[in-house]
Amino acid sequence: MPTLFEKLIAGEIPADFVHEDEHCVAFKDVAPQAPVHLLVVPREPIESLAAAEDRHKPLLGHLLRVVDKVASDAGLTDGYRVAINTGEGGGQTVPHLHLHVLGGRGMSWPPG
Ligand code: 5GP
Question: Against a cut of 0.90, is the pTM above it?
Answer without folding.
Answer: yes
